[in-house]
Design goal:
Blueprint: E1 6-12, E2 19-25, E3 34-38, E4 44-49, E5 55-61, E6 68-74, H1 75-78, E7 84-88, E8 93-99, H2 101-111, H3 115-121, H4 131-146, E9 150-152, E10 160-163, E11 167-171, E12 178-182, H5 186-193, E13 198-200, E14 205-207, H6 211-227
Parallel strand pairs: 9-13, 12-14
Antiparallel strand pairs: 1-2, 1-8, 3-4, 4-5, 5-6, 7-8, 10-11, 11-12
The structure holds zinc ion (3 copies).
């Protein structure tokens, strides 16, 4: 291979969060020397400019920190053999990749981290009362989500997770369903790992494990509200 003219860019949109794929031809720079990539939602993803088609200035809006990051790249890097990560210096994570289609696709696949891995990466592990239990439960929820066995009875499969010190709260944003999973003792793990699917009950709050303790907590909350 002497000259490769097509490359693939995958980048997460800072506005809608979708991972967008774009093909980029070296010939796109023959005219005005600038290429703007837009997301399907209309937001700008990335701009690449070059005067001489040897050196390229890339800028992208970062899905993690919201800032614009800049990169100076040689032609051989953009139209090269490896997937180059588009990183965010703030969180040391990549919002996307540039490179051969196959390598970019593979890198994106590996990038899809579970919430547990993210929590560790972001340093939340120490905040949990029992990190081991929390991470094992998150792992199991991740497995259920991958098999499409996690969701809400109303049909929504994208639950919102809230991680607290001793529990995980699952919310359905399509209805009012809430699920509470305690994650502070080993018993909590066995209960959750025994579940092959988990669907919240539409418009209801469900204390998924350890209901006794759950009632105690919700009572405490009520008293707290009254007191205010
Ligand atoms: Zn978008
Ligand atoms: Zn950033
Ligand atoms: Zn729902």
């Amino acid at each position: 291979m002497i000259l490769k003219t097509n490359t693939t860019i995958a980048i997460q949109c800072s506005q809608c969060g979708e991972l967008e794929f774009h093909a980029l031809s070296l010939f796109a720079f023959s005219g005005q020397g600038r290429k703007d990539l837009l997301c399907g939602c209309g937001a700008g993803l990335m701009s690449i400019a070059s005067r001489n088609r040897q050196q390229f200035n890339a800028s992208y809006v970062c899905a993690y920190c919201g800032e614009t990051h800049y990169l100076k790249l040689n032609r051989q890097v953009i139209w090269g053999k490896e997937a180059l990560p588009l990183t965010c210096p703030d969180v040391v994570a990549s919002v996307g990749y540039i490179g051969p289609k196959q390598k970019v696709t593979q890198a994106c696949h590996e990038r899809e981290k579970s919430i547990g891995e993210l929590a560790v990466e972001l340093g939340y592990e120490e905040e949990f009362e029992n990190p081991e239990v929390m991470l094992r439960i998150l792992d199991h929820l991740h497995r259920l989500a991958k098999k499409s066995d996690l969701g809400c009875a109303c049909g929504n499969q994208q639950l919102t997770f809230e991680l607290l010190q001793d529990r995980i709260e699952l919310y359905c944003e399509c209805c009012e369903a809430v699920g509470v999973i305690y994650a502070d003792s080993a018993d909590n793990v066995h209960q959750i790992e025994g579940m092959n699917s988990l669907y919240l009950e539409e418009n209801k709050t469900w204390l998924i494990n350890n209901p006794l303790r759950g009632q105690h907590i919700s009572k405490a909350n009520k008293e707290e509200k009254k007191w205010r």
